User: Which sequence fits this backbone?
């Protein structure tokens, strides 16, 4: 395999001179690290479609709530660099928190935030994670400005995030194409996630039930059932071993609930395992 030379950069003023229009199309793949085959698929797609690929690795404190897993989130930069290199990245940008946020943020929790409309962030993942999407949009905007990317790659696994970022890009006139990438799954259907490493042996065995719940709704819909509540009840039966945060069917157009399932309807699930409290999310177009 012919691997490119990959640079690992930690400072904003060091990445800036490396990026210019002569490189051709520049792609950004924003990640929080602990890279896996889901991330790899994004980086490979970015490197097929662009001349230059930046993978950012940054666990963004602003998108974590106080009782969330910021401190224990897995961090393994050396392994991440290897995976990014194999997948065709040119730069891994791995800034420290101090590099991304000024002193005043740490002292007074004060920084300029990019806040999407309440209507879209007060639902689904945003409901149980207040401030999460403000943190996501803020860091993504900063990374867009730092990398001057032409395209940015996001996984459909985080469907609400993808929707909100697409909306932000349109409404704030970022000259950037957002490229959605399909969900990568384990053989048993479980969506690959950095958080799967928190699962106990028993939890890992039941985790694919979330995928089964989605497949159940899809099959019933294909059989002609179009009432969201009937599909949700049927899927819910697979989630008895979880504390379900939400199970909803929305329109892909506006992420609002629908009264009848049509083309372009998405079922979304967030559920926590009971023992280790691992919050798993997944979704499927019905
Ligand atoms: P994260 O590191 O969890 O913030 O994810 C970085 C990017 O990778 C996001 O755009 C995710 O949607 C995407 N991603 C994470 N897991 C998967 C997966 N299993 N399949 C596809 N994309 C994924």
Assistant:
């Amino acid at each position: 395999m012919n691997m490119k030379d990959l640079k690992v950069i930690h400072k904003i003023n060091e990445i800036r001179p490396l990026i210019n229009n002569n490189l051709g199309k520049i792609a950004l793949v924003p990640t929080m690290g602990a890279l896996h085959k889901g991330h790899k698929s994004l980086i490979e797609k970015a490197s097929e479609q662009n001349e230059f690929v930046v993978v950012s690795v940054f666990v963004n404190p602003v998108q974590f709530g106080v009782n969330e897993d910021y401190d224990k989130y897995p961090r393994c930069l050396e392994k991440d660099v290897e995976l990014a290199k194999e997948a065709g990245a040119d730069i891994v940008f791995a800034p420290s928190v101090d590099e991304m946020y000024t002193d005043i943020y740490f002292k007074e929790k004060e920084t300029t935030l990019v806040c999407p409309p309440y209507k879209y962030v007060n639902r689904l993942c945003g409901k149980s994670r207040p401030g999460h999407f403000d943190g996501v949009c803020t860091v993504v905007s900063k990374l867009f400005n730092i990398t001057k990317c032409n395209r940015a790659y996001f996984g459909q696994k985080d469907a609400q995030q993808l929707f909100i970022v697409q909306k932000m890009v349109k409404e704030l006139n970022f000259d950037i194409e957002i490229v959605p990438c399909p969900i990568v799954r384990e053989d048993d259907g479980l969506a690959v996630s950095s958080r799967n490493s928190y699962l106990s042996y028993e939890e890992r065995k039941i985790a694919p039930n979330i995928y089964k719940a989605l497949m159940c709704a899809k099959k019933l819909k294909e059989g002609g059932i179009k009432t969201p509540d009937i599909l949700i009840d049927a899927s819910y039966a697979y989630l008895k071993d979880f504390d379900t945060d939400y199970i909803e069917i929305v329109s892909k157009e506006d992420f609002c609930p629908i009264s009848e399932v049509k083309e372009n309807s998405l079922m979304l699930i967030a559920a926590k395992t009971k023992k280790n409290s691992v919050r798993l999310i997944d979704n499927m177009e019905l």
